[in-house]
Specification:
single chain, ATP-binding, Rossmann fold, ABC transporter ATP-binding protein, nucleotide-binding, elongated, 4-stranded antiparallel sheet, 295 residues, ABC_transporter-like_CS, binds adenosine-5'-triphosphate, Alpha-Beta Plaits
């Protein structure tokens, strides 16, 4: 659907996007993941045509219709939820009876059904976000692009937003969605990690986790552990990194035999745990596993 070949974007003197080669295929949810300033908005604006690549090639399958909800979107504030949807539908050439038919299930999925007569200006941030999404999908575009739809949204709305995204994907559409929340990666079929304008990795979340090269162990003990004791663990052969997460100490380990022995001697319980997306991401950032570094 989209093909990016060495796409670079410069904003003035600053490089917002280093050469990016990426392919987006039909019928999947693509996540663009990164922290503030990673380049997510720049990439999304490039995909929808609001920003022109400084160099490289970007191609989109002919005839693909795009629905887009920017980070800062606008609604018709003096219209109700239903009026916003029906008016946007008519602007996009959707017949009134077709829009009326599509509207109830979308309102239901997003929890907006009971409020369909409420004016947009009186809605909460999350409700506005969901309404903007419905307005952008009422003409059933083949590709639906969302810039940080869950930013600052409460957990219930967050779940409804992802439900809506998945339902739309299940109809065969492509969804491209940016987020800074790593726990949302599980909703995506493929994820592209961006950091300071550079692609760190692009793959299916499961494969990304499988590629984590270390075993991850949680060290558990029922008493307060002095830092000096933890320093000793750091010296054990095979321990690549040791840090605190919640009440546990977490070790990335390259061969766990020595760690197991030391833990047993000191009365710790060791539990092997699966890597998290944040483990992978932090390692990629730290070890500089960066693909393209030149412009
Ligand atoms: N119009 C602009 N002029 C100059 N620099 C810009 C402009 N837009 C973005 N940038 C720079 O490009 C980089 C990427 O910004 P971008 O907004 O794409 O990141 P982001 O991942 O979407 O971050 P956020 O989550 O904060 O929106 C940043 O360093 C930013 O300062």
């Amino acid at each position: 659907m989209f093909r990016l070949q060495g796409v670079t974007v410069k904003m003035g003197k600053e490089v917002a996007l280093f050469p990016l080669t990426w392919e987006i295929r039909r019928g999947k949810i693509y996540g663009i993941v990164g922290s503030d300033g990673a380049g997510k908005t720049t990439l999304i604006k490039t995909l929808v045509g609001l920003v022109k690549p400084t160099s490289g090639q970007l191609s989109l399958d002919r005839g693909t219709r795009i629905g887009f909800v920017p980070e800062h979107f606008g609604l018709y504030e003096e219209m109700s939820i239903a009026e916003n949807i029906l008016f946007t539908a008519s602007l996009n050439g959707v017949a009134a009876d077709v829009a009326q038919e599509r509207m109830p299930s979308l309102l239901e999925l997003t929890g907006l059904a009971p409020y369909s007569d409420r004016l947009a200006r009186s809605l909460s941030g999350g409700m506005k976000r969901k309404l903007a999404m419905i307005c952008a999908m009422i003409h059933e575009p083949g590709c639906f692009i969302l810039d940080e739809p869950t930013n600052g949204v409460d957990p219930v709305s967050r779940r409804e937003i992802w439900q809506l995204i998945r339902t739309y994907r299940d109809k065969g559409a492509t969804v491209i969605v940016s987020t800074q929340y790593l726990d949302e990666v599980i909703h995506c079929d493929e994820v592209l990690f961006l950091h300071q304008g550079r692609m760190l990795m692009a793959d299916a979340p499961k494969r990304i986790l499988e590629q984590f090269p270390y075993e991850v162990w949680a060290l558990k003990k029922m008493r307060q552990v002095p830092l000096s004791e933890m320093r000793e663990f750091r010296e054990i052969s095979g321990v690549v990194e040791l840090f605190q997460r919640g009440t546990d100490w977490i070790a990335y380990v390259n061969g766990s035999a020595d760690l197991r022995e030391s833990a047993a001697q000191r009365g710790y319980r060791l539990e092997r745990i699966p890597p998290l997306v944040e483990d992978v991401l932090i390692r990629l950032i730290k070890e500089g596993a960066i693909h393209d570094t030149t412009v």
